[in-house]
Amino acid sequence: MSVEARFRADGLLEPDGRVRTTVAYDYGRAVNLARWGLSARYCAPAEAEQAIVYAGALSKSAYRSWEEFSASYALGRVLRFDGESYGPFYEQNVIAHRLLAESEGSPWRHIPWR
Questions:
Q1: I need a labelling partner for 71 at 20 to 30 A (CA). Which of 16, 51, 62, 82 fits?
Q2: What DSSP string describes 13-64?
Q3: Taking the mean position of all CA atoms in its chain, how far away is CA 38?
């Protein structure tokens, strides 16, 4: 089974969906690095915020929706940690994706992508 077929079967992609790029994972990591840098006092709050806002802007220009971003992030994370298998890092992403896509209180339902 191809990665995209597995993503479709698990609800990360629409029936005709594709993952065009995995830069969502890189943008997510950039946000984490900004947060860690702030926590370690390597940067000022304004600098961390600027990096986070920039990563968000790049994400919005690369993806059309929260769901598309999530599928891309999931693939990047699987490639990084699960070695192209469907191990615990993949399973965690599937759970998070479903919760965010289906829960009434999800930010995905209340914060527009664009």
A1: 51
A2: S-TT------HHHHHHHHHHHHHHHHHTTSS-HHHHHHHHHHHHHHHHHH-S
A3: 21
Reported as a single tens digit per residue, the pLDDT across 24-70 is: 999 999 999 999 999 999 999 999 999 999 999 999 999 999 999 99
CA-closest candidate to residue 75, choices 110, 31, 26, 14: 26
For residue 65, CA distances in Å to 2, 13, 22, 77, 108 come to: 23, 12, 14, 18, 9
Look-up of token digits 């919005």: 60
Start-to-end C-alpha separation, the chain: 33
Helical spans, DSSP H, in 65-106: 66-77, 88-102
What whole-number distance in Å separates Cα of residue 68 and Cα of residue 18?
9
Q: Would the pLDDT of 89 be above 90?
A: no
More confident residue, 86 or 32: 32
Task: Report how far residue 12's alpha carbon sits from residue 78's, in angstroms, rounded to the nearest whole number.
Answer: 13
